[in-house]
Design brief:
By secondary structure, this protein is of the alpha+beta class. Helices cover about 45% and strands about 20% of the residues. The protein folds into two domains: about 100 residues, PH-domain like (Roll), CATH 2.30.29; about 50 residues. The protein is built from five helices and six strands. Helix 2 runs antiparallel to helix 3.
């Protein structure tokens, strides 16, 4: 099971993140995985900009000069994004909180769950991580919890699916 760590006080104090629940945190390896993905994406963009800059005009190097600070920003903020994620299982619903500048709290009632996916791309598998994707009756209220160890993702999938089945049967 994921390690129980309290969310940063700034998040708990907000009205959309109730402080009376036990918040679960995602795995710290998620920040490293995000840094790797960001490095790959920004590396490809830099390469795409560098080739025309060498062959056509040096003015394209200005675009390259913008890519490096954006990558650095992404790299430095990865641990902060990690600390902003949390989820909590309550009796009737699941809470997912995320975001630094644009914070959000998604409340998923178990009775609205249609199915639960566990996904892991190549970078996630390399770091031993998985993502739980929740699908509800409303396409706007779907939620995801990234950065979970595969065992916790499987446990959460089974538990949420069972709770969803039980609540759906009671409707």
């Amino acid at each position: 099971m994921a390690e129980v760590n309290p969310l940063p006080q700034a998040i708990v104090d907000e009205p959309f993140a109730p402080g009376d629940v036990v918040w679960q945190r995602i795995d710290p390896k998620w920040a490293t995985a995000q840094r790797l993905v960001g490095g790959i994406v920004f590396g490809v963009v830099a390469l795409v900009l560098a080739v025309p800059a060498v062959l056509l005009t040096p003015w394209i190097w200005l675009g390259f000069a913008l890519v490096v600070p954006l990558w650095l920003w992404d790299f430095l903020w990865a641990p902060r994004r990690l600390r902003a994620w949390g989820y909590a299982e309550r009796d009737d619903d699941l809470l997912v909180v995320k975001g630094i500048v644009f914070r959000s709290l998604v409340v998923v009632p178990y009775g609205r769950l249609q199915y639960v996916d566990v996904e892991a791309g190549p970078v996630d598998r390399k770091f031993g991580l998985a993502k739980v994707q929740l699908h509800t009756a409303s396409s706007d209220s779907d939620a995801a919890i990234p950065g979970l160890p595969p065992e916790e993702a499987a446990r959460l999938r089974d538990r949420l699916a069972a709770r969803g089945q039980a609540r759906l049967a009671g409707l």
